[in-house]
Amino acid sequence: MQTVHAAESGISIHLAPEILGHFFGIPITNTLITVWFVMFLIVTFLVLFHSRISLVPQKTQVILEMLIGGAYDAVASALQDERIARRFFPLIMTIFLFILAINWVGLLPGVDAFGFYQNTHGVQKLVPFLHPGNTDLNITLGFTIVAFFTIELAGIAYLGFMKYASKFINVKMFRQFNTKNVMGFFIGIIELFSEIARLISFSFRLFGNIFAGKTLILVALFFAPFILPVPLLAFELFVGLIQAFIFAVLTLFFIKLAIEEPH
Q1: Closest Cα to residue 38, out of 152, 143, 133?
Q2: β partners of residue 25
Q3: pLDDT tens digit string along 186-205?
Q4: Would you say 34 and 102 are in contact if contact means Cβ atoms under 8 Å apart?
Q5: Which of 45-49, 181-185, 198-202, 244-248 has the highest average model confidence (pLDDT)?
Q6: Distance between CA 100 and CA 118 in Å, rounded?
């Protein structure tokens, strides 16, 4: 674990999540507990909301139907195909809501405040039960892997393996060697590397923004506990929303690019 001490009284910024225990050799971290907690909250909300759905909707149902309907219309407009939109909208919306919930739960009072003390090199250190989930690169990488394979499988499913592969490997160069085909071959290789680079850019973008925001709030709480934290928390709520939106929208548009005919 990498730790940076900002002052003798004990600001410590942990780049890696704390391990609470092990389950059959698998480490259980406080960021993983936070993700499970968010999953429990979402499932509980959906079960309670589903039980109250009626033909004559109340205000809450009307608002949610408008929001979800508007999001679906935006996805359908971007993909320009209702059938494809119905297939991918649940995943895109789930990614958005899940990331948003994890980001916002990480800002709740009490997160990072309750835990147990652990003796590390003769120093008593608080190990919290909950820690903001997206400050763990493993969590953001998990989201990225899901999005990455969805994008690639969408391209293969709608275009076929050979046609989709032709976006990255221009076999025309081996049949007819000319400047155009050579350039097309190298552009395809660049496209292939850019596809793989999404695993890095997706995960580090989300991780970096959330980790930086949490660190900024921690420093503000230490130096100006009654002045800076409130506006910073409000700003981080907005950042959490924007990061969830960006991740979902990028997934949507990369799916659109994947299913387009190669040219």
Answers
A1: 133
A2: none
A3: 777 777 777 778 778 878 88
A4: yes
A5: 244-248
A6: 31
The widest CA-to-CA distance across the chain, in whole angstroms, is 71
CA distance 140 to 211: 11
**Partners of 12 in beta bridges:** 5
Query: CA 153 → CA 61, 91, 92, 255, distances in Å?
Result: 34, 13, 15, 9
How many CB atoms lie under 10 A from the CB of residue 35?
21
Position 124, amino acid: Q
Terminal C-alpha separation, the chain: 47
At a CB cut-off of 8 Å and minimum separation 6, what does 160 contact? Answer: none
CA distance 144 to 11: 31
159 dihedral zone (left: phi>0; alpha: psi -120 to 50; beta)? alpha
On the CB side of 119, how many CA atoms lie within 13 Å of its CA? 1
Q: CA 162 to CA 53: how far, in whole Å?
A: 46
Beta strands in 179-223, from DSSP E residues, in sequence order: none
Tokens of 214: 């949490």
Strands 19-23 and 12-14, bridge-based pairing: unpaired
User: Would you say how long the chain is, in residues?
Assistant: 263
CA distance 251 to 136: 20
Question: Which pair of structure tokens corresponds to residue 22?
Answer: 């092990």
DSSP-derived secondary structure letter, 117? E
Say what the pTM is: 0.82
Cβ contacts of 100 within 8 Å, gap of 6 or more? 240, 241, 244
